[in-house]
Design a protein that fits this description.
It is built from 8 helices and 21 strands. By secondary structure, the protein is α+β, with helices and mostly antiparallel strands. It has a 6-stranded antiparallel sheet with strand order 9-5-6-8-3-10, with no helix packed on it. Strands 18-16-21 form a 3-stranded mixed sheet, covered by helices on one side. This is Phage baseplate protein.
Length: about 400
Amino acid sequence: MAEITRNGAKGQTLNEYLTVMRQRYLAIDDGWNINPESPDGLAIAAWCEALANLDEGVIAAYHSADPNSAAGQQLDRIAAFAGIKRNKATFSTSTVIFKGVPATLIPFGTLVRNKITNTLWATDNNVTIDAGGSATVNVTCTTSGSQTANVGALTIIATPIGGITAVNNETSESPGRDIESDNAFRIRRNESVALPGSNQVDNMYAALVNIDSVKQARIYENDNGQVDENGVKEHSMAIFVDGGSVNDIINAIAAKKNPGCGLNKYNTFPNKITEDTKTPLGNPVSVTFFRPELVPIYVRVEISSNNKFDDENIKRAIVHYTTYGFDETKGFSKLGFRIGESVGAGRIFTPVNYIIADNGFVNSITIGKSWDETRGVVNVKFNQLGVFATENIEVVYV
């Protein structure tokens, strides 16, 4: 039977149980017919299978108390001790520009359709066409997960409104995420143990990445007396957050920020958000953070094989890997590309090889900021985030 000792848990395999059980039967009568096809042989097999399953259950229960091996609901329970919950699926977001008659109201929830993927995107708030005949508003996809919207894809008005003549998105989407996987949740839990701590950068990061719908965060601290190489002001932090509601982010920063450290309120980094709020004890504070600039990455994959693979499956695997990392086995990155991280084509071989390695190989992978670029590395600035979409990936066979 399974044992739990100071060195861990140990059980017996099905073959080990079969060997012991057969020896004991033959010790009673060495002429006993216990061949596998005999009635007694079948009974021995059934008992041994049940015993081996019990051992596996005991060992699984033992390891489920370890956050590095727990999975599913048990991992949720372990993380709950630190006040951390698994992230639910999030929704892709983008910004669209409506054209039409001045003073026309576009209500909250107005739907726009993606002309390529047919997904629907709803406006986040009411907006009115200005005197120049346009109105800009954020939209959120109604389907969760990594739904894409390339520049110029959101052009169909799905909710007809009198006075509205056109709609378009001049920037790419910020992709959503599927429900958090065990590996991703495990990594975030390990990063979040500083949530109640006193180190400002660590506990602020932990607070930010545990906000609903936040996909990732990056904090740059400059504790020197001069502006650093990124343009971060002296004695300050620059906080970049992808996803999440503005109000939740502002409150999290206000709760964790220490006195005397600036937040680059007067910096000229793009996508700046500044609001006056109060700390949890009611002291006034001005909070500033930034959204990362999204950089669409275009990918060309050349495959050498006599077989034809499911190209859409390959594209989805690349998008998943660049967002979440590689969950299938150990030894590979468990994180996608992060804010401020340059994108290397070499990392993209991993998800493609996982699909095609049995019947072919990757001849080359090139990437760029447009179809015209063919690079091995796309340099991403400290405040940018490389994003991938299936429609920006081409698979060819050579």
